[in-house]
Structures are given as C-alpha cells and as structure tokens.
C-alpha cells in the first residue's frame, strides 16, 4: 500500500491547533482489526497474528519522548499489572526501536510492549493514524478482542491531548 493511494482524512485532527491530514481508513467498533507489520527491534517484525488469542490494547503515540506520550505509556504500564495474562498492551510509535528501548529502561516501563512503525508506517496506514505532513502516528487507542474484532476506538482530535484512560480501561475490562 503506497501513501499516494491511501484515503486522506482532513478536518479530523490537529497538531498544536494546526490542521493535519490523516492517511488511511477510519477504524470503527465492530470492524475486523487490520493486520500490520511493525518492528520489535531493528530486525524483528511482528504483526497482529503474533498476539492471536489475546485481548489487545493498542496505545498509539507520536513519540515516547514527549510529555503526553510519556504519561500515556506510563499509565498503561501501571494498569498492565492489573489485567492478567490474557491481555497485552502494545504501544506503537514511529520512534526507532533503540529509542523506545532507551525510554523504557529510563522510565521503568516493563509491562507494555513497545513497537516501532518506523520502517514502512504499516500500522499508521492500516489504522488511519499516519499524519501525512510529518510522518508520525496520531495519538489513538484501539482495543481489539481475542478474535481480532475492534471493540473500542478513540482517535484524539488534538495530538497533545490525553486519551480517556478511564473509558479505555473500562472497555478493556469488559473483555477480560
């Protein structure tokens, strides 16, 4: 899938109040979760199938090196301990895998799995969060059940805003 052939969505999000264009489809509750390929490290790719049979909370952040992204990742890391073995929390950004590793080590992030969309922006394109103008993924939350059906979606309309953690966690707990 090349970016020139992707659906463009305008008027739905901003960065610092400036309008942006999101590439890819808008995912809705009830949709089958699109597959994707992201990197666990520089050489190892993973896909949705690698988390088959698990409930997945996918926390999308533009970069772990910003305040809101840091807080979002830390919050879900704390919550991960309370969710059990049938749940996996994936934090996806376009940060390089070694930058994600450095962040996790410094922040004590050890329950959330960080994955990088740096190589081909597969996740961003598939889930409609790739920002055309700056090639980062827009902040969003997706909850996907064990059968890969989307059960919760929150696209943030302003990149610096926090997601509704309580609503996401409530939706997640209904599945476990």
Automatic annotation (TrEMBL):
Its EC number is 1.11.1.24. Keywords: Antioxidant, Disulfide bond, Oxidoreductase, Peroxidase, Redox-active center. Signal peptide: none annotated. It comes from the Bacteria. Residues 27-176 form the Thioredoxin domain. It catalyses: a hydroperoxide + [thioredoxin]-dithiol = an alcohol + [thioredoxin]-disulfide + H2O. PROSITE patterns: THIOREDOXIN_2, TPX. GO terms for molecular function: thioredoxin peroxidase activity. The active site is at 69 (cysteine sulfenic acid (-soh) intermediate). Thiol-specific peroxidase that catalyzes the reduction of hydrogen peroxide and organic hydroperoxides to water and alcohols, respectively. Plays a role in cell protection against oxidative stress by detoxifying peroxides. Belongs to the peroxiredoxin family. Tpx subfamily. Homodimer. This is Thiol peroxidase. It comes from Paenibacillus pectinilyticus.
């Amino acid at each position: 899938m090349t970016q020139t052939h992707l659906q463009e969505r305008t008027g739905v999000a901003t960065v610092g109040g400036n309008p942006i264009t999101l590439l890819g489809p808008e995912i809705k509750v009830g949709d089958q979760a699109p597959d994707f390929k992201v990197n666990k490290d520089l050489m190892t790719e993973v896909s949705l199938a690698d988390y088959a049979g698990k409930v997945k909370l996918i926390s999308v952040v533009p970069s772990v090196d910003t305040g809101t992204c840091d807080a979002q990742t830390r919050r879900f890391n704390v919550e991960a301990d309370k969710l059990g073995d049938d749940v996996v929390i994936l934090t996806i950004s376009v940060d390089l895998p070694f930058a994600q590793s450095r962040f996790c080590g410094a922040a004590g992030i050890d329950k959330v799995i960080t994955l990088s969309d740096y190589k081909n922006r597969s996740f961003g394109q598939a889930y409609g969060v790739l920002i055309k103008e700056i090639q980062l993924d827009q902040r969003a939350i997706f909850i996907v059940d064990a059968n890969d059906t989307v059960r919760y979606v929150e696209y943030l309309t302003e990149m610096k805003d926090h997601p509704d953690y309580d609503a996401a966690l409530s939706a997640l707990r209904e599945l476990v």
